[in-house]
Amino acid sequence: MRTENQKAWFFVLPVLILVAFNALVPMMTVVNYSVQETFGNNQFFWQGLDWFEQILRSERFQAALGRQFLFTAIILAIEVPLGIIIALSMPRKGIWVSVCLVLMALPMLIPWNVVGAMWNIFALPKIGMLGYFMNDVLGIRYDMTQDPLAAWITIIVMDVWHWTSLVVLLCYAGLVSIPDAYYQAAKIDGASPWAVFRYIQLPKMKTVLTIAILLRFMDSFNIYTEPFVLTGGGPGNSTTLLSIDLVKIALGQFDLGPAAAMSLIYFAITLAVSWVFYVVMTKDDHR
Amino acid sequence: MKKRAIIPIVYIIFLMLPIYWLVTMSFKTTNDILAGFSLFPETFTVDSYVAIFTDPTWYWGYINSIIYVSLNTVLSVAVALPAAYAFSRYRFLGDKQLFFWLLTNRMAPAAVFALPFFQLYSSIQIFDTHLAVALAHTLFNVPLAVWILEGFMRSIPKELDETAYVDGYSFPRFFIKIFLPNIGAGVGVAAFFCFMFSWVEMLLAKTLTAVEAKPIAAVMTRTASSAGYELGLLAAAGTLTIIPGAIVIWFVRNYIARGFAMGRV
């Protein structure tokens, strides 16, 4: 279908220049810092791979990484099945489709700091709706500035609120592309709802589901603003995820070397896990 | 069928609760808010909105945000269009590798780029301009735009191009007069996703600005810390940030899902 044409490079050139400027220059800066030590005055000393070793061995990094993986795992385990269930039960035709889509997409269009601030106030005991409901109606002690578990639950509920719609929208797009004939055939064969899901709907959703899981993985793994505004990483360090820790080191303490080494390790982990996801989920495709 | 409708309804109620809460709070007085929980404002007031629309630091926050978001959307879509065309029509040396490399930038944690961007843009004297934020956001938006546009362009048969050339169209004229109208929906979806990401992203926007191009988020943070606990004002500012997104999404509601469904994975 596509013809061989090396002149196509000219079409790609603007993107290449723009992204190279934006990605390569900062990346080189990061690599540069990651192997040097500085005491200010723009004097740098060769440090080798010491920073990498120090970061990988530090308990602080390992703890943040552990929290990050836990967070992402919980998010994926809730949002993906929930998104599929909601997409399956959405109407297929009529005015309600538009209403559903618009209302569901709304949380994704709110600036991230507003999302964090909103949930922060929402969860305040006495004043916020959630805080009031938990403490005064249900009688459960709930204060996320004191209790790490409450902070975790709030962050997770916030993320489910914020991003499940992305999974819903993508799965829904896959579902509406299934021709009616498939369902009629299944009906004639007397297929159970589960069989319809397993052998018709799930395979048709596979491509979009792959995109949804990849995007949710990347975005939840790189999450910064919402949890930072919501809890500030606390109480203590209990909700300090990787990005929060990185920004603390880079822009807070201005420890350029360790921050740069941590950046590279962080990026490498994101890339590696995304690649594994991608390979595992597309390995059956003989395209 | 009726029973199934419960799931989306419950989900939408769950989504709307915090938003409803924010909107009602923006119409309450500070005393009303601090007095404790109530579902409706006891004394309905628009003071918070008046305060925002009469204070230049507030409304300039919105204007700044809208300027860099628009700049970014135009820039991202403009450079992504020819590239997506090349990826959808031609094979060339390193095309797969290039496409994948573009996508890896979408995976980069924004936190990694905050400091290097700050230094890079300071060194070329564009720190604290709208251009700096717009440029920084292209790193994440250009790959996405190329990806979405490529999907839409691939669904246009190649015969269209060939017929146009036979009819004597030059490439630029063909691209603008014939090809673009055919992928109008794709351009809309790509622009929507660029708008969305640039509008919601805050870490880079805040790091790369100081006074002149300060986004609304930075104004909100300042208010939160300096003016004490003006929750009503914050809620009103938050409510106003939801409106542009809500307007944009209404226009592309029929295409959003399709935009991603057509991407190639």
CATH class of one domain in chain A: Mainly Alpha
Which pair of chains forms the biggest interface, and how many residues does each contribute? A-B, 92 and 95 residues
Which CATH architecture of chain B? Answer: Orthogonal Bundle
Tell me the quaternary state: heterodimer
Write out the strand line-up for the largest beta sheet of chain A, numbering strands in chain order.
2-3
Quick one: overall form of chain A? globular
Q: What's the gist of this structure?
A:
The complex is a heterodimer of chains A (287) and B (265). Chain A has 12 helices and 3 strands.
Q: What does this molecule look like?
A:
The complex is a heterodimer of chains A (287) and B (265). Chain A has a two-stranded antiparallel ribbon. With 287 residues, chain A is an all-alpha fold. The relative contact order of chain A is 0.13. Helices cover 72% and strands 3% of the residues of chain A. In chain A, helix 9 packs antiparallel against helix 12 (256-282). Chain B is mostly helical and 265 residues long. Helices cover 75% and strands 1% of the residues of chain B. Chain B contains 14 helices and one strand, in the order H-H-H-H-E-H-H-H-H-H-H-H-H-H-H. In chain B, helix 8 crosses helix 9. Chain B is globular. Strand 1 (3-4) of chain A pairs parallel with strand 1 of chain B.
